[in-house]
Structures are given as structure tokens and as C-alpha cells.
TrEMBL record:
Name of the molecule in the record: (apollo) hypothetical protein
Chain intervals for the UniProt region annotation (Disordered): 416-445
Gene Ontology CC terms, in alphabetical order: nucleus
Transcription regulation in keyword set: no
Source organism (scientific name): Parnassius apollo (Apollo butterfly)
Domain PHD-type: 520-570
Stored InterPro entries: CenT-Element_Derived (IPR050863), DDE_SF_endonuclease_dom (IPR004875), HTH_Psq (IPR007889), Znf_PHD-finger (IPR019787)
Length: 570
């Protein structure tokens, strides 16, 4: 059947389920043909024909299917409903089906349920016409381009973690009675001379490749530190330029009040964050009698920065760390500001290149382009709505639903709640169904439970192994509270010894060498002895138990190694 088929008659407009009820009523002797036809609004002649076929021993497919030669009528309404529900569950778990996956699943579903179908048995796929008709019958489904979501974010954003964060936030609300003018969020973003994404342009049809001019293959990175309040008050940005010396020309066109620092990497560092904290305090002017709340992510330059934490404590700044891998949902700047800023910044770069042919964007133009984009994105509405969407201000711990936490169910071994139990796993009424029923002496005994569901063919992914929490990023905590600050101060007094091996047998992973200490240390993660380690491997010492481990086994960054604590000492 063509995908653009237009119906030319009004025949077979009755519901198949109504026809089945009418057949059962006649065969059970409760109604006659005419009464059943009028009661269930089905043609009397069609009702008679189907009952005659049942009595002659015809198959259920020949009796109940209205158009067996077309792909449209392969599945019953019940099976299609189960297929739609399975697609929605897979999308919520971030395992959405492609068009080819759907075609393959439809073919296997028809084969496993012994349905008569016109699908291609050589390729094992349903036809494109069936897919087109399926999407038309279920308008709530459509083909979409998914956004890549890391596994860490899918696992990290779960109900228990988010509940812990909101419990800490509620404690701060009760203790300090914060209002929207005293709640701030800060975050860093990277600005490059090459835009991250270029908008669509109008081009000629049929052209294989359409290009857009860029300043370079890979642009220079400048970090911008942004901050705003729940009332729409913006703190002037701080920009980190990847150079050794500062030039005043670098800030031409930057947002008013912007400050700049230099570092060879162009990334945030601990001393730079402490400097930003002074910049923040000078604008907000917090006091211990009138504190402010600063919500920020768990980057090591924030959470392991004793200087910044002591500075915040001295001036009445309460620092609340977001849970790891949850900033895409809980950080207001990520939710409502970074997207518009990135779009406007890319537009400004394209406009600048168009107005300055033969030139490229360098560090000296980034501040000006960023300033124009920042002024367009820094609206009060964006700030207020961003805080509201995260549930931080106004406080709303129930802002996120089961749908938002669905991706984390893949890695959380738990008994499903009432809302998470699939509909097809619940007991169903034994209603007549031509695909699931059997006939015996002309009587229908349907058995929907015997149906092979899409979930049986393509199970919902589930990881049953227990996941140990990572210590590489800061956990959700009030950083300016005394317990956290004292713990951090205690760790900072311990030094981590880093030994770079230059050959086997020239050290043992202890403070003394092998000649003075015959003990051959083992990696506390993989158990490999130092004497057998590769010459290129580096070992690090736990600050608590003083045991050693490979750098590749613990997976910490250089900034986090100073505070490395093994799993056994957490």
C-alpha cells in the first residue's frame, strides 16, 4: 500500500474489538445476528461471514483480520499499544530506537507471535510503509535527533542524590531565611575563537557539502566565570586568558566591570577562584548578619580550595556544592543561560567574520564578541526562570518527576514503584483478541498473557552491579560548614609523594628505596607488585592509610591527587 494512499470508500469503518464482542455474543447465544449487529455497530453480513468461517474451522487470522494483505493490519491494537509503550520506556532510559531498530523489532514481534505478515523475511525488517503508517497512527511519536548524554550524568542524576541536595538546601533556607536576592549561582564556560555550533543557512538543493568560514581548525580557549542571582542580578564576569601577561586591549568591548587574569592553560585554577571570590564579595557585600548563598559545582578548584572557603566564611558566603554529574538539571546557569549565550556568541562570530573579510578572530576580539552576546543573554527573565526550573528558588524539591529520573533506573537495582511497573506486566482482563486467542469448537478463549511482548524481544537495559561512588569530584555538601572545612584543612597538611618510575627495580612505592626496605609494595586497586610494574607507570600514595596505587587505577587528575583518599579510607 502506498504511503500516500487516500481512502476512496467508507467500508470497514467498524472497530475490530466491537466485531469480536459481537461474535462472542452470538456464539454464546446471548444475542442474535441482528441484535448483535445493532448493539455493537457492525455489519450484519460481515458478522455472519466470520461466524461461518469459525464453524468451518478457519484460522483466527482469516476470521478476524480485515485486510491481511497490507502491512497496516499486521498487529492488533493491543500489540501496537505495547509496542508504543516500549518505545517510550526505551527513550526515557536513553536507549531510543532508530527507524531500523523499529523495523527489526516489528518483524520479530510478528514472527514470535505467529502472525501472518508481508514483511521481508530475507532482511528481517518491516517495510518503510508500515513505519510511516505506524507513526501516523501514533502522532505522539516522531523521529528526533537525540542529544548525547554521558553515562555518568545518566547514573548520577537519581532520586536519592537529588533528595540529599534539597535536604541541605532546605536546611539553609530554614537557618538563614534566604530570599531570591541573596541566592547566587556561579559557573565557568569556555569561549573559543571557533564557535561550538554554527546555525543553519540557506543553500542550494542537491549540494553535497555546505561550508561556513571559521577562524581556524581549533580555536584559542578563554574561560569566562559567570554568576547571577535568583532575582536577576548579574555579577560582572571574570575572564581567564591563556597567556603570561595581561594587556588592556584584551578587555575591549567586554561587559562593564569585567576583570581579567592570565594563566598559560586558560583554565580555572585555585588561586584564580579565590580572586573571583574577592570580586564576588566586593559586588554582593555579604555579611555574617546578612549572608548569601552561593551554589556551585564540585570542581576541585571550588571544593578543595581552602583559601576561597576561608574567605567565604569570613564574609558570610554560604557555599553549597551541587551533586556530581547533576549540573545539567540542577545548575541554573546550565539550565537557562549557557544555551542562549552560546547561540548569541556563535552569531556574533559569524557576523564579525562577514564584516571583516580576510581576518580571523583572536584573543583580542573574544571579549568584544562575548560582551555583545552576554548583553543579549543576560536578562532578568532568563535568570529567574533558570532558578525556578531547577527548584532552587522558589524551593521546590518535587520539581523533578519519575520521567526525569528514568535514565538512572538502568543502573539502580531496585524494586519498581507502582508508577514504574509496566502496564503489560499487570493482570489484564481476558478480552477477545484475535492474535492471542485460540478457537475450540467455534468458541474463542483468548489468552493475552501468552503474547510475546516487545519487552521480551528487546529487554529494557538494566545493570545489576553495585556502582561505587566516585571521589574524584566534590560531593554535595555545604563547603563553608566547619566539619567540611576542618576535614579539608587536615588533608591539606599531608603531602602526597609522587614517584615517577624510570625502570623496574629502582623503587618500591614507599618513601624509602628498595635497598633500605626490602618490602615490595602492591597496588591497593589491582594488586600488582611494584617490581612488576611498567617503567612508564606512576604511583600515588593515599593520604590516610599511606598505601600506594597506580595512577591509571585511581584515575585522579593532577589537582585532585593532593587529596587522594583510597576507597578503603573513605
Amino acid at each position: 500500500m502506498p504511503r500516500t494512499y487516500v481512502r476512496k470508500s467508507n467500508r470497514v469503518q467498524w472497530s475490530e474489538s466491537d466485531m469480536l464482542l459481537a461474535i462472542n455474543s452470538v456464539m454464546e447465544g446471548r444475542m442474535g445476528y441482528l441484535l448483535a449487529s445493532n448493539t455493537y455497530n457492525v455489519p450484519k453480513s460481515s458478522l455472519e461471514d466470520r461466524i461461518k468461517k469459525i464453524k468451518r474451522g478457519k484460522s483466527k487470522y482469516e476470521v478476524f483480520r480485515k485486510c491481511p494483505a497490507t502491512e497496516k493490519c499486521v498487529f492488533t491494537d493491543e500489540l501496537e499499544g505495547m509496542l508504543v509503550k516500549h518505545i517510550k520506556i526505551m527513550v526515557s532510559r536513553l536507549f531510543g530506537l532508530t527507524k531500523t531498530d523499529l523495523r527489526r523489532l516489528a518483524f520479530q514481534l510478528a514472527e514470535r507471535n505467529n502472525l501472518n505478515h508481508p514483511f521481508n523475511k530475507e532482511t528481517g525488517l518491516a517495510g518503510l510503509d508500515w513505519v510511516s503508517g505506524f507513526l501516523k497512527r501514533h502522532s505522539e511519536l516522531s523521529l528526533r535527533s537525540p542529544e548525547a548524554t554521558s553515562a555518568a550524568r545518566a547514573m548520577g542524576f537519581n532520586r536519592s542524590v537529588v533528595s540529599s541536595f534539597f535536604n541541605l538546601l532546605d536546611t539553609l533556607y530554614v537557618k538563614h531565611a534566604f530570599n531570591c536576592t541573596r541566592i547566587y549561582n556561579m559557573d565557568e564556560t569556555g569561549l573559543t575563537s571557533v564557535p561550538k555550533k554554527i546555525g543553519k543557512i540557506i543553500s542550494v538543493k542537491g549540494k553535497k557539502q555546505v561550508g561556513a568560514l571559521a577562524s581556524a581548525e581549533r580555536g584559542q580557549l578563554v574561560t569566562a566565570v559567570l554568576c547571577f542571582s535568583a532575582a536577576g542580578h548579574y555579577i560582572p564576569p571574570l575572564m581567564v586568558f591563556p597567556r603570561a601577561r595581561m594587556k588592556s586591549e584584551l578587555l575591549d568591548g567586554a561587559p562593564p566591570g569585567t576583570v581579567a587574569v592570565c594563566h598559560p592553560s586558560g583554565w580555572m585554577q585555585q588561586h584564580i577562584f579565590a580572586e573571583w571570590m574577592r570580586h564576588f564579595i566586593s559586588y554582593v557585600k555579604p555579611r555574617k548578619e546578612d549572608p548569601v548563598l552561593l551554589v556551585l559545582d564540585g570542581h576541585a578548584t571550588h571544593t578543595k580550595n581552602l583559601e576561597a572557603i576561608e574567605l567565604a566564611r569570613a564574609h558570610g558566603v554560604m557555599m553549597l556544592c551541587l551533586p556530581p554529574h547533576c549540573t545539567h538539571r540542577l545548575q541554573p546557569l546550565d539550565v537557562g543561560f549557557m544555551g542562549p549565550l552560546s547561540t548569541f556568541y556563535s552569531q556574533e562570530i559569524q557576523l564579525w567574520l562577514r564584516n571583516h573579510p580576510g581576518r580571523v578572530v583572536t584573543q583580542f576580539q573574544i571579549a568584544s564578541l562575548f560582551g555583545t552576546a552576554y548583553n543579549r543573554a543576560a536578562t532578568m527573565q532568563n535568570a529567574v526562570s533558570a532558578f525556578a526550573k531547577t527548584g532552587i528558588c522558589p524551593l521546590n524539591p518535587n520539581i523533578f518527576t519519575d520521567v526525569d529520573f528514568a535514565p538512572s533506573q538502568t543502573t539502580i537495582p531496585c524494586v519498581p514503584t507502582t508508577n514504574e511497573i509496566s502496564q503489560d506486566s499487570l493482570p489484564r482482563e481476558r478480552t477477545p483478541s484475535p492474535q492471542a486467542g485460540t478457537s475450540k469448537e467455534g468458541q474463542i478463549f483468548p489468552d493475552p498473557i501468552s503474547l510475546v511482548s516487545p519487552k521480551d524481544i528487546m529487554p529494557i537495559p538494566h545493570f545489576k552491579k553495585t556502582i561505587r561512588p566516585s571521589t574524584r569530584r566534590g560531593k554535595t555538601a555545604i563547603l563553608t560548614e566547619s566539619p567540611y572545612k576542618n576535614e579539608l584543612a587536615g588533608k591539606s597538611t599531608q603531602s602526597v609523594i609522587k614517584i615517577k618510575f624510570k625502570g623496574k627495580g629502582k623503587g618500591i612505592g614507599k618513601k624509602t628505596n628498595k635497598e633500605n626496605n626490602q618490602e615490595d609494595s602492591e597496588c591497593l586497586v589491582c594488586g600488582e607488585k611494584y617490581s612488576l610494574t611498567k617503567s612508564t607507570d606512576e604511583w600515588y600514595q593515599c593520604t590516610a592509610c599511606l598505601e600506594w596505587a597506580h595512577e591509571s587505577c585511581i584515575g585522579c587528575s593532577d589537582q585532585e591527587l593532593l587529596f587522594f583518599v583510597c576507597k578503603n579510607c573513605e
